[in-house]
Amino acid sequence: MSGHSKWHSIKHKKGAADKARGKLFAKLIKQIEVAARGGGADLEGNPTLRAAVQKARDSSVPADTIDRAIKRGTGELEGVRYEPASYEGYASGGVAVYIECLTDNRNRTGQEVKNVFTRNGGSLAEPGAVAWQFERKGVIYVERRAATEDDLMLAALDAGAEDIVDEGDTWRITTSPTDLQSVRSALESAGIPFTSAELTMLPNQTVPLTDEATARGVLRLIDALEEHDDVQAVYANFDIPDDVLQAVVA
User: Fold this and answer.
1) pTM of the full predicted structure?
2) What is the 3-state secondary structure (H, E, C) of 109-170?
């Protein structure tokens, strides 16, 4: 299993805790507000908003909460004005870290993200230092028992999927950002359930973390970043061998 996929599994488990704390809902609502402000309230005419709303629905955000977020974004309701910001840095072992935020105060968020890096053995880098090591992609995960490879190929490849990878318990389908929705719709039409479908950043290459202390430090930094209210997503280009991963997360 690739480093990204292992990290996806860890984030998926952490997501349940985020829901309990209300953090996930708050972050999804911010995404909707910013998307609506940037491109209007029409889901068909604003693909960024459509993706944000779909992600919120997948996470069981109530429909009226989504509607209010859209209205705050378009100015129909009063609300805080958020804007996107990204930060780049390095974790232990030379692992590249790319962070996407939504904030109402860039200076505050930037300083706080820097402090998180410093407290957890990492360092903030200049813009562009690590972004080139990642590529925006759509990724869909399907449980292996939910479909055969032939079923997936028939549904997903015809809809624009770029790759289908067997990762043991799951299939990972990769798409271009623009084809994510069409592949998702094709799977739904074929009756193939999936566990997640979202835009993400995939690393072009990964850094192997074979030392438990280093791996633990990297995960601790990323955990701390994800706890920040302004942080929407954290991407890192590491690969942890299964035996090390089991020891670290046990």
Assistant:
1) 0.86
2) HHHHHHHHHHHCCCEEECCCCCHHHEEEEEEEEEEHHHCCHHHHHHHHHHHCCCEEEECCCE
